[in-house]
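Researcher: Go.
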Amino acid sequence: MTTKGQNIVSVIKQQIEQFGSAVSMVDVGTVIEIGDGIARIHGLAAVKYNELLQFPNDIMGIALNLEEDSVAAIVLGDYTRIKEGDEVRSTGRIAEVPVGNALIGRVVDSLGRPLDGKGPVKTTQNRPVERVAPNVVLRQSVDTPVQTGIKAVDSMIPLGRGQRELIIGDRSTGKTAIALDTIINQKDGDLICIYVAIGQKAAKVAQVVSTLESYGAMKHTIVVAANAADSVALQYLAPYSGCAMGEEFMEQGNDVLIVYDDLSKHAWAYRQMSLLLHRPPGREAYPGDVFYLHSRLLERAAKYADEYGGGSLTALPIIETQAGDMSAYIPTNVISITDGQIYLEADLFNAGIRPAINVGLSVSRVGSAAQTKAMKQVAGKLRLELAQYRELAAFAQFGTSELDKTTRAQLDRGQRITEILKQSQFVPVPVEKQVMILYAAINGYLDDVPVGKLSQFEVGLYDFMENTYPEIGKAIVSTKEIAGETEESLKAAILEFKKDFSILVEGS
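Model: Structure:
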């Protein structure tokens, strides 16, 4: 047989083998420019915004700028392995992440790929990272508390399920500490937690994971990490990926808490990405849609109405300020989106008041709707007492010899409340114990206890109540209020402990 005949035979064989197979059409383009994590592609006429693109060497990208004659995409990987002239294929899939129970206890990147060396994430479910927030019809008002275990927060700046509460303050004022305390306090509870680390050092993220593991909190937590060394594309995607993972649980009727640490670095990553994509810069060189960047993320936090499953997603975004400037561009944007803020002050932190919460500038717009009746009973006067104390303390620093008895008593009370609200890191206090110590503080039972002995008094009171009168704590937890009989028992128990404590103090 001639060579020509052999070629015809091979072509016929090939056609027989392929007979009946489906023809697939793939939108293909060519890389015309690559650099700084951005690829400019000619072709891809049918590509969608946020669509995943397949580059050579198993590298993925996301289409972001759909221009008249080209597409600009961010590369989710090592862009140095891509060169001009490489073929790019559209996948038809919008950027998505794996979701489901298999992620709990894992550390993953922005695309859901494991970073903890525990093998692949065994889940078949995926969700798009971007989604329209639930509308008003699907939602209900926030009415169930998220107990943080931090006395100052639970009493004066209550956090509710479905709320968005901003944690704001300068560098190293304890912002992450408040978020981690809240996650640790959910141990053995029904809240699934997601911690999203954006643009942080890998060592700091490893330290956070180690802390959560040592307190047994990784059993109910997912960590999504886009480290400082990762591409800006992964840092930009991280909070949306974490939110998509949380929404999966929320739609199954579960309650979820998500921490974005922090959105300042997220805005920086987006600014860098936008400038590389040649989008026009606006104020402080941020692109014009930087407000939408965070609003479309935080609006996804919600409390579903009971007829739609009753699940919730509570968001704790973190913003870092420069020299306490809350009026800068990104802080004011996020303050206007959220339902209140916890403002941490460097001066208070340095003065040893930790958590360093400025009660005057901190607020929860959900208010006492997210508190149990017991906490409302003791916390009602607290903010007022502290505000009056701060005002008086400012005048009293010029000299205390002229002060009348009432003012002196008010200063002493405020000093003791401030001392009681101090709390060590990773020592969350159950709500019934918070109610007991705050009841003692606002009703004057601590007025004659020396300020230096208050922390000792507090620890002693908790042990005494747990061992001698456990039914009081149980009554506060079950009824969620300090009813008449419980109140009488609580008063008697505090007085009994005070008698023992004063003997102990005098003896020492």
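Model: The CA atoms of residues 441 and 483 lie 18 Å apart.
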